# Entry
Amino acid sequence: MKKIGNSLIMKIDRSSLLIKIEKLKQIVRKSPDNVYELPQQVRHIIQTAPQALSDLEVAIKREEQQDLLPIQQVLNQLEMFIQWAVGLSAGKSMAKSIRSGSPPDLSATAQNRLNQRMTQFLMEHVDQEKYLDLIREFCGEEAIQENTVYMDPTRESEAFAQWIMHDKIVTGFSQRLIELFAKKVGELPSDERLLLELQLQDRPSIYRVMKICKDGDIGEEKGTYLVQDILSRKRELLKIRDRSTSASLNQEAVFIGRAIPTDKNSNAYLLLGSITQLPECLWEKLSVLIEKWRGEYAFANPYANEKDFFRAHHQRIRRFIYQ
# Structure
């Protein structure tokens, strides 16, 4: 970004736009086959998205650098529509399998299979009334009106799902639901078991991007970047491997994410699900509140660590952001 007079001119990375398009194409390709069972608006988005993405790809390659901003704006809007439509269709497909009690489709990814098993476990141990109470706690009373739940199907729904499985200790239980699931699930396929073990070592926090690795950086691979754990007392640095976010995040960007180890022996991390990037003006306000909450929490819980603080305040942080 550079400043000319009183105006800010942002340089748009052509390669980042192309990477985003390829990622969205993959998301659309993985959408359920039974699109004709979906609402018309959702069906229309899924069916027309491939051509729209191809048209944008051609335009990005053809246009001059100064003409890319309108294309980026259109792509951002299309990304929102695609994530909403595919997320809704995938949710309906999984809900159908969960209600029937069917085991996961073995052709699905390990992550999707594990998600289905954990959701089935959740439904067995948390009844509908308690589940709706948890939605109200996380999103606010206005999230439920009569028999309808109003949640952003991409960011808010995913954040809620992570909170209820990974952070919240539900009334009546002594551990997080993911810890109870790991004890009671029994035998799992090896790829799902490995994912579960890594997720049990999750590191949820607020991170700041310190360095984005590029081709030619000695000892580093493209798609890797270093982040600072802002909630860590020592401001520890973590290495994140994720091509998508490495292309979309800028230096000094602040985001909420849940890091998990890439494997048992690695010092690098992956991000579980999507991240929530915080605008600078929002982070300035939120950081003041977090320092206040941390002081209060530390006084009441002198032996707690940074992860304990995040888990206890995850819902509070999200509510502030959404409001």
About this structure: The first strand starts at residue 2 and ends at 4. Residues 110-198 form one domain.
